[in-house]
Each structure stands twice: as structure tokens, then as C-alpha cells.
């Protein structure tokens, strides 16, 4: 059958792609009035992207992502277990925690933790409503990094991860828990050995999305003075009065990190899908990557059966 609509759509897309490539490589008159310059300042992008401030900003971005996601995953797992608890106090507190931190903007939470010293001028440990044994200086404990990475991004991520982990636990058939209980396994052992391994195939895909989202949410840490990628781009734009090249430079860093994380997520998903009939049903990673270029795998030849005649 002929499909003229497909060819028309492909032609329109090719024209749009050609226009985008043309505007990316085009030149405009130079601001100095002498010659021309790249419209998007690719020469400035190349000069900025691997400089020391941007490399250190990229390292700090990765470190913020790692710290915040570690806290989020651990906190989300604990909150999900408490949410599924039969104790109404534990499940109610877990619900309130998730409700509050999912319902307020993360930038507001970062600024709240950063300014917490205004309402808690001192920190102490001791008997509740009684004697205090240890006194801490809040200005040394709650720094910009702690406020942004640990308290702001990490606690907020724990609220989201708790719902992801809870959905993974609920996806496991209840008969698994009943079978474990009949064998004398406790709640903690059942969760660790039975429920969590089976729930991982449901938990991994949204968790990968959360990691990629957290990588970009770390840009909010620049508002409390942490010199990650967005902070470096803002500093460069304020110094050179050219905001586009530094924004493109940090976008390339983010795209590189996101690509690596997507590849890692793909292989982790395939690893935890084994045994559920989905591990080898989908295309391989390199088949997905070469599909946009029209490269298809050649089908394997069908083996022919050779019949041997046995002499009587």
C-alpha cells in the first residue's frame, strides 16, 4: 500500500531539520563591526566547556546528584516500609511526610533549610523536655551544601521515592508474603529477600527518571551559592554579557551525563527483567541506537534440513 502521508510528514521534518542545522551553523555580523561571528557563539562554547570552573562545576553537579539520590533512595525505602506498616501511627507519619514534601516546591524547601538558623539559633542533644548534653553550632552544621544537597534535594527526593518504592511493593503478589510467612520468615527478611528483588523491575524505570531529573534539579543549588554548573554559567554570563554560549556549554555537560545515565538505566532494567519474560523480547541497546539511521539487522539464514537416505 502507498502511504503518501508518511512521505509528506518525512519531507516536512527533513525541511525543519535542515533549517535548524542552517541556523546552528550560520553567522551574523560581529558586534565590533568587523567580519562575522557564529550566531550561537560556538567558538566561545568550545573555549568554555572544558575550562577549570566548568569541569569543577560538573564534578560538583555529579556529587550533588549522588548525595541527594542516596539520601532519597534510602529515605524513600524507609518511608515506603512505614507507609505499608499496620501501625496507624507509623503509616500516618509516613503519609504526612510524603504529603508535605511533595506538595511544596523544592526551591522553597532549599531556602527554608538555608535560613533555618533564624528560628533555631542553637542545636542541642539530650533528654526530651529535660537536660541537654551536647550543644552544636548551627552555622557550622547547616552549610550551603548541607542545606541544598542533604536537606533540600535529598529529603524532597525521599518523598517521591517512597511512592515509587511503595508501588513496587504493591506490584508483588500478596501470595509471596503469605508463602514467606508460612515458612517462618519475619517481616524484615521477607522484605529484603522476597519483596524487594521482585519489586525492583517496577522500581528501576521511574528511579532512573528520578536520577536524571535530580541531575537537572541540582541547578537550584546555585541559589544558595553552590558553584555547580548553573552557577558557573551565570557567573560567566554576568562577566561577558553573553548568556547564550555558557548556557550551551552547560547544556552539553547535562546531555552527556544524561546519555550515560540512560545507558546505565537500560542495562539495569534488562538485568532485573530476567525471569519475567521481558528480558530478551525487546530490542538490544545498539539496535535501538541504530534504528534512527535506517540500519537494520540482517535476518539470520534459516538452516536447511538435510535428509539422509539409509540404505536397506
Question: Describe it for me?
Answer:
- The protein is mostly helical.
- It has a single domain (37-273), classed as MetI-like (MetI-like fold, Orthogonal Bundle).
- 66% of the residues lie in helices and 5% in strands.
- It has twelve helices and four strands, in the order H-E-E-H-H-H-H-E-E-H-H-H-H-H-H-H.
- The protein has helices at residues 4-25, 42-48, 52-83, 88-103, 106-114, 138-141, 144-171, 174-182, 187-217, 229-240, 244-272, 285-290; strands at residues 27-29, 36-38, 123-126, 132-136.
- The strands form two sheets. The protein has a two-stranded antiparallel sheet with strand order 1-2. It has a two-stranded antiparallel sheet with strand order 3-4.
- Helix 3 packs antiparallel against helix 4 and helix 3 (52-83) crosses helix 7 (144-171).
- The longest helix has 32 residues, at 52-83.
- The radius of gyration is 27 Å and the shape is flat.
- The model has no long low-confidence stretch (mean pLDDT 84).
